[in-house]
C-alpha cells in the first residue's frame, strides 16, 4: 500500500500549482518581511496615482508609516472595511492620493504565495504564542487568504481548531486582514470566512464549523481534492471576484460572510438572464439554504450595474417583510427602503436615489389598482426594472404577476423558492412556477421548467453539504380500536383515511376525540424536555401545529391545566407554552371563520402570555404579540417560549435556529409539508443534530412524495434519520470499538501515548454522538443499551474523555497531538449539575443531625466530582472548599447563596493579595486591573498594563515579565470567578 503523503509534500505541491497559475512565490520569514513586501506591492497597485502625484511609484519612510498606522491594530471586521476603502494618503510634498488596497481588476492586483511565516512576540507585540503558518496568499502584499493543511487521514476539523487557536494567540498585525481560510487534508477541502475576532460583548469569537463550506461546480458536484479545488478557486479572476463581489461585510453584527458556491452560481445565472438574455426565471434553492443573502447580492449587483432603473424586492406577508428588511440591512445598513404603506411605496418610486425598494405584493397590488398613482407608475412603463420575488411559489404573486407585467412592460422577473409549484402540486389555478416565470418568445414557455429554472440547489445537496440538517421523524400511534366501539376494525389501519372511508368510520371524530387530545397532550409534555433540552443544558424551541383553532384550544387548555402555570410546583420543568392564531379569515393563514368566539379565545391565550412574561398584549395589538413571540422563539435575549401552538402561522417563512422540533396533529402535503418540516432544520450548535418531527397522524406517504418531489425524485430515506433500532446496533458496534482501545474505564486512565489517547477520544466521541441521537427518540430507554454498556460504565469512560479534554485545554503545548482534536464537548454535557444546583442541595441539608450532615456533604462533594458541566468543572476546587470548610461555620439560618458569594469574594481577594506580595505589586492596583478586565476584556493590553506599572521602578526585563504575569493572572481570575452558574 502506498504511504500517505506528508503535510510538507501537500504544501509543496500546492505552492507549485499556484506558481503555475501565475502566483509569484516569495519567501517570508516573519512579520517584518511582510511589511517590507507590502510597501512594494502597494506602490505597484497604485502606481499611476503615485506617479501622477509625486513623480514616482514609491513611498517614503514617513508616508509608509502613515500607511501602517492606517492598516495595523484593528479588529478583523475593521480591517475588512479598510481593505475595501479608498483611503486618502497625505504625501510629504503636500499632495494627496486615494490609495486602494484591493481592486476588482485582477490584472492590476499583484498575487503572491508564501509559506511558513513565523509570528512571534519579537516582531508583533500582541502575539501570545509563537506559530508558523502553512501557506499564505498575498494580494497587493496583504495576507488575504490563509491555507492550513493536514496530511491525508487527519480530520480537517483539526485544521479549523488550529485556526481558532491561532486567532487568539498569533493572528495579529497584517494577519488581521485574512478574509478567507482554506483547510484541507489533500483529499477533503473546505473554505470559510474569517469571522470578526470579538463578539458584541468584546469576548473572543470562534469560527463556527457550521459556516465552513465545500466548493462545487455549477451543477453542485462537490470538488474535494486540494489540487482540483485550487485549480478553480484560486484562479486570479475567481479569488478576486469572491473577495469583491461575493463577500459581505455585515453592518449590523459586525461580521464577515462569504457566499457558498450554489449562491454564487445562482447570482451569476440570474445576472446573465437579466442583463444579457433579457428574460425571466426562478431560483430553486431549498428552504434554509440562504436565499435572502443570494437575493441581496443579486439585487445589490443589479443596483450597482448602472443598467437598472429600479430593483423591487417583493414578498408576501408582513412578518416576512420585517425579517427580510432586517437581514438586508444587516448586509448593508440602510440599503432597503422599507415601505410601510402604498403611499410610501409610490414616494420611493418618485425618488431617483432609491434604486432598491422592498415591499409586499399586497402594497404593490394596491398601487396598481388605485388610479391616483397612474402618473407615477406610467413613468416606468418602458424603463428597465427588475422584480425579485421571495417565496415565489405562493399564489399571491401568481395572481399579481399579469397586472405588474402589464404596467412594467420592460421589466424582468426573478423568483426565489425552496418549494416550486410543479404539475404534481399545483393548485386550482393550474399554474406552475415555470408558467409564471416562463421565458418570453420561447416556444416551450409554460411547459419546460428547465428553461425557467435558472439554478437548483435541492434538499439532498444541502443535507449532504451540511448546510441544513436531516430530519428525524417519529410516527406516533394515537387512535385505538376502543374509540370506534367495533371489534372487527383493524386497529393498525385507523390512521388510513381510505380504510376509514370504506368502513364508514368518521376519522375526523377519532382525531378530535377528547381522550385522544388528553393522551397526546400528556405525551408531548412528558417528552418535551427530551426534544428541546438535549444533553440537559441547551434549550431549543418547539412548534405544535393543530388542524383547527377549536382543537388548538382543547390542547392548550389541557396543557394549561397541567403545565402552563409558572408555579414550580405545578410546572417542575418550567415549560413556557404559548399559542397564536388569527381570529378572522386570512388567506393562507388561519381560517377562523368557523368559530365566532376565536377572538375571545385568542385573548385568553394573550392574558396567560402577559402573566407569564410581564407583557400587556391584547387582540388590538396582535402584530406586536406576533413579533414578541417570534423573538422569544428565536431566543433573542428574552425568556424563551418552549412550545408554541399554531394552526398555520410560523410554518412558513419563519427562520429560527433554536427551533428544533415540529409536532403535528394535522395533515400536510407537498410544499406545505416541506416548508413546515424545514422550520426545524436550520444548522445551530452541535447539540442540534437534526430537525425533529413528531407526528400523531400517518402522513408517511405524503412525506415521502413531497421529499421526493423537492429533491429531484430522490430517495426520501436519504434525508431522514435511521430507525431507533439502527442506532442501538450502532451503539453496540461503537462500544466494541471503544473497549478494543480501553477494555474498562480504568484502562483508559493508563493510556500513556497521545496517539492512543487521541484514538480513545475519537472512538468515545463517535459513541457519544450515537447516544445523543438515541436520547431524542421518545422510546429511548437505557435498558435497551445496558447489555452493551450501561449508564454508569458510560459515565466512567466519559470522565476520562473529559480529563483528556481538560489536559489539552490547560496547556496545548504539552499536549500537541490533542490540542486541535475536535472534542465536540457540547455533546458531553449531559447533566445539570451546576453552582445553583449545588447550593440548592446545601440549603436542604439538615444541620441539626451531624451524622446526616456528614452524609449529605459527602454526597454533594461526589456530585461536584461527577459533574460534566464545563463551567462548574472550572470552579470545582472552589466549590469543594466552600462545602468542606465554610459551610460548617455558617449559622443555621444563614442564606447559603449570599454566604457562597461572600466566600468567592474573600477567596478572590486572598488570591489578589498573594499575587501582589509574590510579585512586589500594590494589591489595590492588582485588584483594579482584575475588575477592569472583568468589566471589559479589551482593557488588558500590554500597553495599558505597562502604564499601570510605570512608576514601580522595574527594569525592562522585569517589566516585561511582570506584565505577562499580571495579564495571565487577570485571565485566570476571569475564568475562575465568572464561570457561569447555570
Automatic annotation (TrEMBL):
GO terms (BP aspect): DNA restriction-modification system
Keywords: ATP-binding, DNA-binding, Endonuclease, Hydrolase, Nuclease, Nucleotide-binding, Restriction system
Enzyme class (EC, first level): hydrolase
SMART domains in UniProt: DEXDc (SM00487)
InterPro entries given in the database record: Helicase_ATP-bd, HsdR_RecA-like_helicase_dom_2, P-loop_NTPase, Restrct_endonuc_type1_HsdR_N, Restrct_endonuc_typeI_HsdR, SWI2_SNF2, Type-I_R_enzyme_R_subunit, TypeI_RM_Rsu_C
EC number, UniProt record: 3.1.21.3
Helicase ATP-binding domain residues: 272-421
PROSITE patterns: HELICASE_ATP_BIND_1
Catalytic activity: Endonucleolytic cleavage of DNA to give random double-stranded fragments with terminal 5'-phosphates, ATP is simultaneously hydrolyzed
Gene Ontology MF annotations: ATP binding; DNA binding; type I site-specific deoxyribonuclease activity
Record keyword Zinc present: no
Family the UniProt entry places it in: Belongs to the HsdR family.
NCBIfam families, alphabetized: hsdR
Subunit structure: The type I restriction/modification system is composed of three polypeptides R, M and S.
Function comment: Subunit R is required for both nuclease and ATPase activities, but not for modification.
This protein's name: Type I restriction enzyme endonuclease subunit
Species annotation: Bifidobacterium canis
